[in-house]
């Protein structure tokens, strides 16, 4: 199982684009990739998951850990491109209340958009 | 090198060079097994071969003998790699043994007793996908008119998950006799877990309490898969949503509390994601399929229901659980 993470920086926002499945096997690689860019004071990180079809709780753990680190320095984490399945995961876990969550562009904008 | 080994090898080699039969090859193979048992390294085998050949085929050019010395040098690394492998296997066996002991400890730690409450039928199944489980089911109750049930799923599996789970257990024990409602219970456990886990660890948990006097089920959830309420009079399932953040993420997380009245034939199903995220080679098991399976046994006792759902989903996944599986059924008689 492969996982690819592309990094690029734009107007002081650190972008991560994740491609592949995030599970117990690929999660360590994702954690390392995120750690490659040191967490700075007040940093803004945006993680694009539009090409992630599957993520299990280990994957979620990586984002929880990253979120805690960034929050500690007064920064923000935004997660974008969530498929309905992943969106549900962030909703159920209550992470949608503490992180900035954005659904996949195609699913966005409906009246039933539950993003708070 | 025992003289006898050399003599035996020489004999087998001589026979093979003369006949080159299957039988001789077979003898060689059997002999190599003996060499492994005696812990003889690859370079020693070549050395045995060389000295046997000196007797069997004397008079070979000196360069051939030198080539054997060269080959012996070449094989030394292989010998070391083999040694390393053997010590790894030994260590693995030791760890396996420790895992089994740990799993026994966990079993004792997680022992729980189904409370007996008038008019309520409780059943559950919890099956780990590996030696140690990351799922946790715990019942509390006064064996009269109240029963509490906690279903938790610790992220990850194995020993780290088991250690984290023991915190949840002690948290539960500490609130067992308090008057805290589901939301209060989760807040207490959240503070315990948050203080003690590393950054990327978390626990999802659902805590529900059934009160026989009013036939109500009150519940709160910390990022857990919503429980299902089967409403018998309408023959449909309602998801019991209750907002609440995962345990261990933020010390001041708040947990919404909900409550439903149960009628005769109603039941509550609380599960972990090993149930809802079951994967077959064709993809995820659809939620509707899971509901159908539960529905098909809705008239049976709670324990049978839980066992049936497990058996069906286990079969659909080819009897290879991907994740720990836990399901609790709480049924109003």
UniProtKB/TrEMBL annotation, chain A:
- The organism's superkingdom is given as Bacteria
Claim: Zinc-finger is one of the keywords in the record: no
Q: Which GO terms describe its molecular function?
A: anti-sigma factor antagonist activity
Q: Which InterPro entries match?
A: Anti-sigma_ant, STAS_dom, STAS_dom_sf
- Decide whether keyword Transcription regulation is in the record: no
Q: Keywords, A to Z?
A: Phosphoprotein
> Can you give the residue ranges of the STAS domain?
3-116
Q: What does this protein do?
A: Positive regulator of sigma-B activity. Non-phosphorylated RsbV binds to RsbW, preventing its association with sigma-B. When phosphorylated, releases RsbW, which is then free to complex with and inactivate sigma-B.
Task: State the similarity comment.
Answer: Belongs to the anti-sigma-factor antagonist family.
Q: What name does this protein carry?
A: Anti-sigma factor antagonist
Organism whose genome encodes this protein = Bhargavaea ginsengi
Automatic annotation (TrEMBL), chain B:
Q: Which Pfam families match?
A: RsbU_N, SpoIIE
Q: Which GO terms describe its molecular function?
A: phosphatase activity
SUPFAM superfamilies per UniProt: KaiA/RbsU domain, PP2C-like
Domain named PPM-type phosphatase is located at: 117-332
Q: What are the top taxonomic ranks of the organism?
A: Bacteria, Bacillati, Bacillota, Bacilli, Bacillales
Residue ranges annotated as transmembrane are none
Q: From the Swiss-Prot or TrEMBL record, give the protein name.
A: Sigma-B regulation protein RsbU (Phosphoserine phosphatase)
Family matches, as InterPro entries:
Bact_Sigma-Reg, KaiA/RbsU_helical_domain_sf, PPM-type-like_dom_sf, PPM-type_phosphatase-like_dom, PSer_Pase_RsbU_N
Q: Which UniProt keywords apply?
A: Hydrolase
Among its keywords, does the record have Hydrolase?
Answer: yes
């Amino acid at each position: 199982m492969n996982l690819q993470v592309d990094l690029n920086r734009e107007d002081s926002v650190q972008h991560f684009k994740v491609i592949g499945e995030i599970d117990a096997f690929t999660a360590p690689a994702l954690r390392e990739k995120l750690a490659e860019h040191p967490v700075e004071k007040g940093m803004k990180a945006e993680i694009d998951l539009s090409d992630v079809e599957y993520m299990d709780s280990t994957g979620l753990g990586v984002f929880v850990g990253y979120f805690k680190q960034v929050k500690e320095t007064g920064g923000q984490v935004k997660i974008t491109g969530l498929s309905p399945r992943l969106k549900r995961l962030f909703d159920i876990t209550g992470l949608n209340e503490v992180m900035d969550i954005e659904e996949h562009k195609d699913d966005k904008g409906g009246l039933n958009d539950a993003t708070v | 090198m025992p003289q006898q080994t050399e003599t035996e090898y020489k004999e087998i080699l001589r026979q093979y060079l003369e006949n080159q039969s299957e039988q001789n090859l077979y003898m060689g193979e059997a002999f190599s097994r003996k060499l492994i048992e005696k812990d003889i390294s690859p370079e020693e085998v070549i050395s045995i071969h060389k000295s046997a050949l000196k007797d069997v085929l004397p008079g070979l050019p000196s360069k051939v003998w030198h080539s054997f010395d060269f080959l012996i040098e070449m094989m030394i690394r292989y010998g070391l790699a083999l040694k390393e492998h053997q010590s790894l296997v030994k260590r693995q066996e030791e760890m396996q043994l420790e895992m089994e002991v740990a799993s026994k400890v966990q079993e004792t730690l997680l022992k729980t007793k189904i409370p007996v409450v008038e008019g309520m039928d409780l059943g559950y199944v919890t099956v780990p996908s590996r030696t140690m489980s990351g799922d946790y089911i715990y019942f509390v109750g006064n064996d009269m008119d109240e029963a509490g049930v906690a279903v938790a799923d610790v992220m990850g599996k194995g020993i780290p998950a088991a250690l984290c789970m023991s915190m949840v257990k002690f948290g539960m024990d500490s609130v067992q006799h308090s008057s805290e409602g589901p939301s209060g219970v989760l807040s207490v456990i959240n503070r315990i877990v948050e203080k003690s886990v590393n950054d990327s660890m978390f626990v999802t948990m659902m805590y529900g309490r059934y009160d026989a006097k009013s036939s109500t089920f009150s519940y709160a959830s910390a990022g857990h898969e919503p429980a299902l309420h089967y409403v018998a009079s309408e023959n449909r399932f309602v998801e019991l949503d209750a907002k609440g953040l995962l345990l261990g993420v933020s010390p001041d997380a708040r947990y919404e509390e909900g409550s439903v009245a149960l009628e005769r034939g109603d039941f509550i199903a609380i599960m972990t994601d090993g149930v809802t995220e079951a994967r077959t080679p064709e993809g995820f098991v659809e939620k509707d399929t899971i509901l159908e399976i539960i529905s098909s046994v809705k008239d049976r006792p709670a324990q049978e229901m839980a066992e049936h759902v497990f058996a069906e989903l286990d079969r659909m996944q080819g009897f290879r659980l991907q994740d720990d599986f836990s399901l609790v059924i709480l049924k109003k008689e």
